[in-house]
Amino acid sequence: MRFPAPLHPGVLIKRYKRFLADVELETGETVTAHCPNPGSMLGLKDPGSRCWLSHTDDPKRKLKYTLEVLEADNTLVGINTNRPNRLAEDAIRAGAIPALSGYEALRREVKYGANSRIDLLLESADRPVCYVEVKNCHLRRTPGLTEFPDSVTSRGAKHLGELSDMVRQGHRAVQLFIVQRNDCDVLSPADDLDPVYAQALRDASLAGVEIIAWACEITLDGIEIVREIEVKL
């Protein structure tokens, strides 16, 4: 996935009200940008951090800038949680994720379970339907280790229960973590931040839900899924 236009460099002043960030641009102008990330962004919101924003001229948009990339731990980190679904879709269509290759059709946001929508539904005439739930991950507190989630996610635990139900019905179900950074080799649940989700992830694995994680290469030109990393439950 390439950014449609060059990103604007700046320095983070503060992130607040979950979806707002004040940034001083390289030009000296201070702008309020949309922060497309509902999580805590633990370790990724320090004032003074270098950051990069996309810009739109859409007259319907109140905030013209969107926070896309931050520098942390001497690497670039993608913080836009709207990106992983597109990244996963593009990689699957390109056959870049072997575990999810070979399906004839891919559909997005298909209704299933208890009033939910699956991120990606993979279908072929000769194999069970595959339900793929995509989660963004970028928390790093220990070198080499990324963790999920970075705050309590009851919705995430609900989705794991519904994926387990799909397995019990004879379908295939996959929890796919897209790690928007490339300095980690292992993913684990963050037990201290959300023990309920951590247990739900382990229960889902025991129920037959496949848990896989892929890391991304982040540049100022774009984001690409590049390698699978180990999952330790």
Describe this structure in words.
The chain is an alpha+beta fold. It is built from three helices and 15 strands. Strand 14 and strand 15 (223-231) form a beta hairpin. It is globular and about 60 Å long.
Q: What gap, in angstroms, lies between the N and C termini?
A: 30 Å
Beta-strand residue percentage:
over 45%
Helix/strand order: EEEEEEHEEEEEHEEHEE
Number of H- or I-type helical stretches: 3
Largest sheet: 9 strands, mixed
Strand order of the largest sheet: 7-8-9-12-14-15-13-11-10
| Structural classification | alpha+beta
Secondary structure tally: strands? 15
Low-confidence stretches: none
Radius of gyration: 18 Å
> What sort of overall outline do the alpha carbons produce when their principal axes are compared?
globular
Average pLDDT rating: 97
Q: How much helix, percentage-wise, in residues?
A: 10-25%
